[in-house]
Structure formats: structure tokens, C-alpha cells
Amino acid sequence: MILFAIALVAFGLLALAWIVYPAAMWLRGGGRKRWGATIAEREPTERVTVVVATRDDPGFALERVRNLHATSYPANLFRILIAVDVTSVHQPEAYRAALLGLAEVVPGDAPGGKAATLNAAVRAAGDAGVLVFADVGQEFNADAIRLLVEALRDGRLGAVTGRYTHARTDDLMSAYATLEAVIRAGQAAGRSVVSASGSILAMRPAFWRELPAGLICDDLFTGLSVVRQGSRVGFCPQAIAYDPRVFSRDQQFTRRVRTLTGLIQYCVVQPRALAPWSNPVWVHFFVHKLLRLLTPILLAIGVIALGAWLVPRAPRETLGIAGALAVAATVVWLVAPARFRRARDQVLWALRLMLVPVMAISNGLRGRWTVWTPTSQVRADLRTGA
Questions:
Q1: Taking the model in full, what pTM does it have?
Q2: Where exactly are the structural domains of the chain?
Q3: Residue 98 φ/ψ, nearest 5 degrees
Q4: pLDDT-derived band at 35, boundaries 50, 70, 90
């Protein structure tokens, strides 16, 4: 019975992380019925500084700046800062020449990296009433900035994040992005969002804390910093950062490894976040972040323990179930080969994603935090000819 109990605990924790908790957050957040776009009648009055840290080609920065200028927020109340990573092959002068005066350019701090670059940008933001953080690869919908600033009128919030979406070129990753948005909505309806999206985040400058050099997940650090200062991080699903880029599965895999490595790094840099008495959203942090990180380990423990308990007790039945599954797969392959191949590819991709936490844990054990790699700037509409 010990083996069965071990399997039960392992599968129970997996169900908690991937089924029970998301369902609870969906119910708390009211499903998706509140995701319709709304704009308050009040005219904006706060000065906003939009910060974009980059090391990409200046041409991409120009596209991003043009998108930001298409905002419905009053032009006289916002400015754009392009912060250039000191490790970029492009000098700040190249950005100034490319941006045609549409944005200010500031050099990032040494030794480089996004964290050091953001630190320099926030210092240059001056007396802004609201800081809005954006990445160079996405596009905001026209009302995004106005919606974020309006949400911050709630004095309980120190920051508010929007919704990240991307081109639907991979059903599994699209489903994951939707799941994350549902969970954030539920968290925001309670105490606070645990991890903001660095691609669309607005905050009061008073809650900003300088980022440690080499930090991977600036959004996780900043969001939990706001919460640990006694404030909250809200979620505004109507404010959207759309990513038009197309990522191969190899790139998606690398990006997920980087994100989870950043989670482990955060726990090393901020170990007090692991203690319930110093983290106001510890339960959410544990279930949403740490249990997911342990998914392949829990899955392996559950399968091995269940197999070791079941096979000696019912060898024929176990063999019969395995045979029935094999026959069913063969029938589907013969009757609908295209559907079988799609299902097989999705299963293999899901199994490959199980290696992401393993590689992240390996990086963490070795203290290997330099995991950034450049990603594609190919847009979905160009790739598909849309």
C-alpha cells in the first residue's frame, strides 16, 4: 500500500497544479465573461513613461515605437524610452538615427542584460506617474496603456499586468497562454497576481526595486516585490500585448527552459519567497510555480510507483490494458492517418516539454544563469502570406 499511497500523492499534486487550481482560478475570476474591452469616461491625467529594453536591430525598435504612438493615451502625457543593452552590436546612436525623434534613447548599465538595462531606463524615467514596461517583439492594442493606467486608479494596486497573446501556430502553446491568462485573472480577483507579464506591465514608480545584475525573470522579481511591499498586482485582460512572431518548437523549448531557469534563480536570489510567513501569496506561488516545476519528477514517481504496485497484483489485466491501447492506436492510424499523426506529434511535443523543468533544474544546480538566446523576428502574417 505504500507504493499506491506514493502514486496517489504524486498524481494528486499533479491534479492540484494542472486541474484543481486552474479550475478554482477560473471560477474566482468569473471565467472569461469580464474580458470585453471597456474604457472609462474619465480623461487621463497622469504622466506615463513607456520603457522598452532591447538589443535587437534598430528597425524592430522603430516598428515598436510606431505601435506605441498609435495609443489612445494623450500624446502630451506619455514618453517612450528605448534602453539599449550595452552588449548589443548596435550603438545608441544607431537607434537615435533610426527612431527619427519618436523616442528617447538611453544606454543600459554594465555588465549588460535586460535587468541592468531596465535599471538604467527607470532612472532616466524621472518624475513619471506611471511606468509601463514593454518588449520590442510585441504590439499593444490601441487602448492598452489607457486601460492599464485606469486600473492603477485602484489605490490597492501597485502594479497591473495585461494579457500576452501570440500567433496561433501551435495549439498546445496557445492553450498554455490561455491557461495562464485565466489563472492570472483568478489570482487578481483574490490577493494578487503572482507573476506579471514583462511584455505588458504598468506600475507606480514608488514600488520599483533595482534588479540584480544577470536576473532572468525581471517580471517575476518585480511583481513579487510589489506584493511583498504590501501592495497588489492586478490583471487587465483587455490590455493586450500581441506577439506576431513565429517561433519554432526548438525556440519555444529554449524560451521555456529560460523562464523556468529564471524561476529557480529567483528562489536563489530571494529565498524568503519560499517561506509562507514572508510571502503573502505563498500558496499561489507554491502551486502555480513550484509544483509545475516539479511536474516531470512527480509524473515519473507516480508512474513508477503505480506500475510497481499494479503489475505484480494484476499482470494479465495490465497487459490487457496495454494491448487494448495499442490496438486502438492502430485502428486510428489505419482509419484516420492524418489525425493520428497530428495527435502523435502533439503527444511527442508534450513529452518533450516534460524535459523543460529537468533542464531548468539542471541549470539551477550548476548555477548556470546565462541561458539567453536570440529568437526569431519573423512575423506570422509574413510567414503565412496574410
A1: 0.86
A2: 1-386
A3: -75, -30
A4: low
